[in-house]
Amino acid sequence: MKEHPLAEHPLHRYVRPSAVQTANCPGCGNGTAAQAILRAFDELALDMDDFVFVSGIGCAAWIPSPFFYADVLHTTHGRAIAFATGIKLGAPDRKVMVISGDGDITAIGGNHFIHAARRNIDMIVVCMNNGIYGMTGGQMAPTTPFGLVTQTSPYGNIENVFDISRLAEAAGATYVARWTTYHPRQITRTMKKVLQRRGFSMIEILSQCPVQFGRKTGIGSATEMLEDYKRRSVSVAKAKEMSPEELESRIVVGELLDIEKPVLTDELAARRRKLEEEREGRNG
Ligand SMILES: Cc1ncc(C[n+]2csc(CCOP(=O)(O)OP(=O)(O)O)c2C)c(N)n1
Ligand code: SF4
Ligand SMILES: [Mg+2]
């Protein structure tokens, strides 16, 4: 039997043997996130065959596709959650995870995002927030900091910024957490939790794009961006003691929400069962 090209790596069994070359640039945060996610599968000894991974279009969409050794659907830009919804409704026994970019999920795909959250569809959404459209050359996104000069805001971004986690919470998500690529162990811990819960779980991961974001903002290299995440991150508990002024430009990290609400797929299954029972009662 041919040896797996990553045979020495502890997570090699989760990576498709034929897909070992990443599309992402050196220093990109996407690799850190990929590894942190797969580590959670490994620590929980989960079977990848129980999962369907879905991504849209963008650099972050290359995290699961084609690398994760499972069923992976690489869909169209902005439609990952729509495809994931279809999978979950058609095959409710499969666990569905969307991994895609901030533009994909909150710009073109924003409506799918808020309604999936509102419906509390049983799926995990990992939104890789690099504050830019990375793959297409650094155009501004709804997450691009105010004032930032980008390819499409040569005089500085004049638009206000989405807070993705708060958007998910306001739309009805039942679990929301935010981390950065400076926090891989925390990402794994959070991932292990959401892999074991039901409902719409959203993890926002701030991730460095040194190529399209770092060098244009002047923040610089991947290392400097990670240092910036480290410097600006503040825990949920600490943030509660800080004023809005103190929190300005800080990144609140940790678990932001964990509540229970009816899950759409469970409700649907219950209605189906009830209808079938009624039908059997009539026929019998
Ligand atoms: C309907 C449609 N509109 C626009 C595009 C071009 N496009 C591809 S990826 C992308 C943005 C990617 O940004 P994001 O989702 O943040 O992912 P990143 O590359 O930053 O990880 C755009 C605008 C497209 N492929 N399809
Ligand atoms: S352009 Fe940015 S987000 Fe895309 S792979 Fe390169 S570093 Fe990562
Ligand atoms: Mg992006």
Keywords, separated by commas or semicolons:
single chain; 284 residues; alpha/beta; eight-stranded mixed sheet; 38% helix; globular; binds thiamine diphosphate; binds iron/sulfur cluster; binds magnesium ion
Topology at a glance:
Layout: H1 30-44, E1 51-55, E2 71-74, H2 80-90, E3 95-101, H3 102-108, H4 110-119, E4 123-129, H5 164-171, E5 175-180, H6 184-194, E6 200-206, H7 210-217, H8 222-232, E7 233-235, H9 236-239, H10 244-247, E8 251-258, H11 264-283
Parallel strand pairs: 1-2, 1-3, 3-4, 4-6, 5-6, 7-8
Antiparallel strand pairs: 5-8
Helix pairs in contact: 1-6, 3-4, 4-5
The protein binds thiamine diphosphate (TPP), iron/sulfur cluster and magnesium ion.
Thiamine diphosphate is lined by residues 57-60, 77, 101-104, 108, 128, 130, 132-136, 141.
Distance between the termini: 56 Å
**Strand sequence of the main sheet, in spatial order?**
2-1-3-4-6-5-8-7
The fraction of residues in strands falls at 15-25%
Radius of gyration: 20 Å
Number of strands: 8
What compounds sit in this structure?
thiamine diphosphate, iron/sulfur cluster, magnesium ion
- Strand-pairing-aware structural class: alpha/beta
Shape verdict: globular
In round numbers, the mean pLDDT is 95
Main sheet record: 8 strands, mixed
Task: Write structural notes for this entry.
The chain is an alpha/beta fold. Strand 5 (175-180), helix 6 and strand 6 (200-206) form a beta-alpha-beta unit. The chain has an eight-stranded mixed sheet with strand order 2-1-3-4-6-5-8-7, with helices on both faces. The protein has helices spanning 30-44, 80-90, 102-108, 110-119, 164-171, 184-194, 210-217, 222-232, 236-239, 244-247, 264-283, and strands at 51-55, 71-74, 95-101, 123-129, 175-180, 200-206, 233-235, 251-258. The longest helix has 20 residues, at 264-283. It has eleven helices and eight strands. The model has no long low-confidence stretch (mean pLDDT 95). Iron/sulfur cluster is lined by residues 24-25, 28, 30, 59, 130, 134-135, 209-212.
